[in-house]
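Next comes a concrete protein, fold included:
___
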Amino acid sequence: MEKTLKPMSGYLTLVICLALFVAAVYFFVSGVDQSIAYVVIAMLCFLLSCFFLKGLMIIQPNHSRVLNFFGKYVGSVKENGLFFINPLYSSQKISLRSENLQGQTLKVNDKMGNPIEIAVVIVWKVGDTYKAAFDVERYSDFVKMQSEAAVRHLAMSFPYDNLEDDHAPITLREGGDKINSILEQELTDRLSKAGIVIQEARISHLAYASEIAGAMLQRQQATAIVAARTKIVEGAVGMVDLALKKLSEENIVELDDERKAAMVSNLMVVLCGEKAATPILNAGTLYN
């Protein structure tokens, strides 16, 4: 369990250390000509000065020190400045700054078994110094390994898109913020044991693997063409129906079933064709 400490200011100790060092120099110089006792006093002042200097520590902004006393956790110092602690304490530096992790591009299979490439960007920082220092071995390596595992699990839990799974509520390609939220929660659950706080996690790269990218692109193009053709046919049918109704309501011309079928066929060709139709004028009668 993390315990925050607020040690005493180190400025007074720094003045004392300087005074002891000056005294050590004075007694040493004086003892050379007068008495060996002065030399002994100089050595004691110098040793005390070194001892107190060992207890001084400078903590930069957004940094911390984890303190131990012969293997026992004492506490963590998170304030910045010059402090004095027990010189017998051992300390470990831990940064509290936010860090970016650009994950490598991983090749995994999505929920439908299709090989895809995925990479994420993660913003994280240390929230609990005790867990980061003692619950895991090298917390930075722990973050990298667990992040990769979380990304693999995410990719295997959802399809890349809804081409094969039409009823998929969430896909990797269209999930957006919801996929990112799921990824953040997955990382938080995995990294909480190391005292890591996830500030942001987003997918930075997502694509089909190279061996199926061409086939999937053709499939997407075919799906888009079919969808476009469906819209075109729906519009053409509506226009033909409107034309027949107008001709009938306005009594412009009366057509039997055979001529109506021919007219519908011609209109559908004109409206659904990829190229512009070439008109042919009929100079004879309607039936010749």
Summary: The first strand starts at residue 4 and ends at 5. The radius of gyration is 39 Å. The mean pLDDT is 82.
